[in-house]
Amino acid sequence: MTESISAKGDIGNSYNRRVTDINICLLKDLQDWICICKLERNEERCKTCKSLSQKGKIIPTFDSYRKIIHIDYKDYPEMTHVVLIITAAPTQVEVMGDSYNKDYRHLSYKLPSVPDIVMTYPESVTKGVSVLTLYNDSLFYNLQLKGLDSVLRAYTAQLVPKHCTSKKDLHEGNMMSLHVPWSQEDVYSFSRVNEIGNLSIKLQSLASPMEDTNESVELRIYIDPTCSYQLKIIAAPTESLGQFIRFYGGLFPSFMLAILLMGLVFQLHQIRRERKCADIIEAISSFGAPYKILPVVVIFRFILNNESFEALITSFGLPQEDSRELTKSGLYSAALPLMLYIISLGVVNVHCYLLIMALHIFSKVAAVLFGWIPSLLFTFFEKIKVLLLTLAILTSCILCGSLGIIISYICFVIQLARLCHLTRVSNNGNIATKFNFGVTILLIFLWVVVLSFPASISWAKNLRYTFILLDDSNKLMSVLSVLSISCLIVLDNPISARESYLYLAPGVYVVNVLLLLYGMVSVYRIIYAVTSVLLGLAVTRIIYYLKNGQHIDIEQEKSD
Questions:
Q1: What is the number of other CB atoms lying within 10 angstroms of the CB of residue 276?
Q2: Is the per-residue pLDDT at 47 higher than 60?
Q3: Which pLDDT score, from 0 to 100, does residue 394 have?
Q4: Which of 40, 271, 307, 404 is the most exposed place for a label (fewest CB within 10 A)?
Q5: Pick the residue with more confidence: 285 or 235?
Q6: What GO terms fall under cellular component here (predicted)?
């Protein structure tokens, strides 16, 4: 039933008991606008009316101007009339009511799976599948979408008008709504009459936590009853990629750092065996294969998730392993670590290549700009470097931990640029080892810079109030990181402490295993892993220096 009403009063709508549901759309915002009553025999009007206004809802977007209510007749077996209350207004109010049988309007559709999409490519992506033809004299359809059980599955619902008999300005338009039972939000799409409507079909939150229910995602369609439509479901690969980045992007940092640490372990073994230290790309290709770390992680994950060891693990104060949290969220699968590791392997290789290329370009430009400076002045620059590192330690202790990290990182980049220049003008293997090993440390330390950078933004925003960042939760790790990297910059010879690498390399490997067990969900645990590795490297060099009282200086090698 579709009527335009502008008069004040109540409007009664009797209905047939053969229908099981009614849908009413009202383009007017009233506090009490609909009720249901029982008309007694020999009476013209209902004396009492039970308000149903609380069950109605206003539908976004603002372009739709719709207030909608769904009434199931079975819930009110004694009632005989639905009453709409519309106040007098200078403009007309559009009221649309649709009484229907659920068997013909509440339908279900199984979404095409990934193999189905691949088999029907490119039609599945370009044209889609015709799901349903919506005929005239219909106001509402409810389509249950079966198979939308993963955040990686994404489609586009396209509502194509075929034939309309009404004037363009008689009705506002069409609306599609994606309702997810376990989500707090619905997604809406509004289109004008004779316009194609599109709605993205994807999970805005994680998969259903209700394992014992049969509730499915619903596509609710509100259409112009004077038009016929065709509904299409089109696969959306770009939306699926966006879903993957949205829900799994936070898991990549731990795997990317794990690959760098595997390269560091290989370099430590090379230096201990008195071989030339390979660059990070070669180290990753030699020792960064998934089978060299993931099987160990799987074994420890099985032990940590075993109920027999759960009490023992809890007594040691260890948190729950990350796969449990991901399993509860519906994101974890047995193949997930391998998939993330392989993707991260490609990303890390590209990142390493770009960083090395940037260091070469920076060193060449610096050599052209500062090549005229006498070599004696570089001794003065070494003193400035020590002053900057001291400033970094003081600022991380007093002002902001992240600020000291940034200062020490800049000092490290400058030193690596000089080493890069020396590798081009000299065939000294020790300098090449220093540079290759330093690039690995720089890549690892970069994660501390990135993860602690938000603290420096907070410090900068609060400068008008105070120079000290209060409640800096990352201060301890920042101070330890700055102290460690300062030692690695000053005591810049990784060859000197090669004997201790026999024990340090397995220690880094253990940290790597713990990182993949506990660093996926909370990326800020990465800082603890990086700090422990840097601290281990710094301690080995300090111990060697205290025992021998010397270390190889860059300037000494340059003069030689």
A1: 11
A2: yes
A3: 92
A4: 307
A5: 285
A6: endoplasmic reticulum; membrane
The overall pTM is greater than 0.90: no
**What gap in Å lies between CA 533 and CA 173, rounded to an integer?**
62
Residue 537 burial (C-beta neighbours within 10 Å; 0-12, 13-18, 19+) = buried
User: CATH 2.60.120 region(s) of the chain?
Assistant: 2-100, 103-235
pLDDT > 90 in the chain, percent? 29
| Lowest mean pLDDT across 206-215, 224-233, 479-488 | 206-215
204: number of CA atoms within 13 Å, CB side? 14
- Residue-wise pLDDT for 507-533, tens only, equals 999 999 999 999 988 888 899 999 999
Tokens of 501: 């690498």
Query: From the CB of residue 38, how many other CB atoms can be counted at a distance below 10 Å?
Result: 15
DSSP helix/strand/coil, 552: coil
- Using the CB atoms, write b or e for 425-464: b if 16+ within 10 Å: eeeeebbbbbbbbbbbbbbbbbbbbebbeebbeebeeeee
Pairing of strands 106-110, 155-164: unpaired
> If we measure between CA atoms, which residue out of 36, 38, 39, 21 comes closest to residue 82?
36
Tell me, letter by letter, the H, E, C secondary structure of 293-336. CHHHHHHHHHHHHCHHHHHHHHHCCCCCCHHHHHHHCCCCCCCH
Answer whether the bond into residue 238 is a cis peptide, omega within 30°. no
Report the alpha-carbon distance of residue 270 to residue 274 in Å, rounded: 6
Q: Provide the H-helix boundaries in 81-200.
A: 102-105, 114-119, 123-126
459 is written with which tokens? 């410090």
Comparing C-alpha atoms, which of 36, 30, 33, 28 is closest to residue 12? 36
Question: In this structure, which amino acid lies at residue 39?
Answer: L
Could you count the other beta carbons within 10 Å of the beta carbon of residue 221? 24
Closest CA to 490 of 553, 417, 556: 553
Assigned fold of 103-235: Jelly Rolls (2.60.120)
Over the range 361-379, which residues count as b (16 or more CB within 10 Å of their CB) and which as e? ebbeeeeeeeeeeeeeeee
Give the alpha-carbon dihedral of 482, 485, 486, 489, to 10 degrees: -160
CA-wise closest residue to 3 among 25, 34, 29: 25
CA distance to 57, 86, 175, 456, per residue, from 136 (Å): 25, 27, 16, 61
Structure tokens at 305: 């998730």
Asked whether residue 553 carries a pLDDT value surpassing 60, the answer given is no
